[in-house]
Each structure stands twice: as structure tokens, then as C-alpha cells.
Amino acid sequence: METFSDDNSVTVVDWPSGEAQRQHLADWGRLRLLRLESGVPAPHVTDLNEDWIRVPCSEEDVAARERMLLARRDGRQPGRRRVDEYGVLRADGLRKPLGPVEARLMRALLGDAGEVVTRDELAAVGWPDETPTRNAVDLRVMRLRRRVEPLGVMIRTVRGRGYVVDEF
Predict the structure, then answer these.
(1) Half-sphere exposure of 60 (CA within 13 A, CB side)
(2) Is 57 helix (H, G, I), strand (E, B) or coil?
(3) Rounded to an integer, what distance in angstroms lies between the CA atom of residue 17 and that of residue 151?
(4) Overall pTM > 0.70
(5) Domain CATH code at residue 155
(6) Is the peptide bond before 56 cis (omega within 30 degrees of 0)?
(7) Which residue in 4, 68, 72, 163 has its CB near the most CB atoms, within 10 A?
(8) Bridging pattern class, strands 31-36 and 10-15
(9) CB count in 10 Å sphere of residue 135
(10) Chain segment 14-32, per-residue pLDDT in tens
């Protein structure tokens, strides 16, 4: 019988061909990410230690699902991020004070986590009384990205469109 010593790992299981492995991992209470084989309908998942993703998928997508599973196991609530009325970003029990422009940008990005926010939308929110250059928006988002990454908030560039915050 196999034993597991690393509680900080997520096992990726090809599904449905790896159903026996999936069940074995479930019996041990292990975290598992099902990688759905081509043309397979999504499984019905009721165990909080399990999630699934369709192939083909990027390594970034797999890593995001793994982080979500680990956070769920640790009692953190993915998606529970907000910028409070004082401009403090709160994410998974951590806090980071932001400047006024950064706070407005972060609120816009968190408003529809997982949805692209265009540069024009960010410019209108971040600088309501002026029109910043494209470079000014990009530079401010780059600085914001560096400040919030330690809290697990990932701002990604969507080339030619804008920015998106990973759901987790």
C-alpha cells in the first residue's frame, strides 16, 4: 500500500483512465486535480480535495488550480479579496495598503475577477479627472502587480486587450 508524506502536494490524475488512482487518493484524503481526457464530460465533484481541468491546458492554469486546492485545504477562501474603504487590499487574511490610484485600479480588477479589464477602463477609474497615457497605465499596473503578488493576487497582461486578475 502506498503512503504519502508530502501534505503540500496535489496529484494530477488523468481521468477517467486514472479512476483507480483517483479513488485511492480520495481514500487517503489527498488533494487531486483531474486532467480530463479529450471528449470526456466533466465529472461530478463533491469532494473539496478535488478539482478538474480540461486538456489541453497551460502550466499556469494547472498551477492556479493547485493553489486553489491548497488554499481550500488550509481554510483560506479563494476569491475573498477586496480593497476596503481605506485603500487596504485584503486577501486571504493578509493586508497591503495601497495608494489612491492603486486602490481604484485594484477595485476595478477585482470587480470581475477572471474578466479582462481594458486599459481604457483602468484609465477612467484610476484617473477620473484626466486622461493618462497608455504607458502611465501600464507602469502603474506593473507597480501594482509587484505590490500585490506577495498576497497571492496575480495580475496578468492580456496582450492587446488589458489586464486580468487570476481567480486564484
Answers:
(1) 6
(2) coil
(3) 37
(4) no
(5) 1.10.10.10
(6) yes
(7) 163
(8) parallel
(9) 8
(10) 999 999 999 999 998 899 9
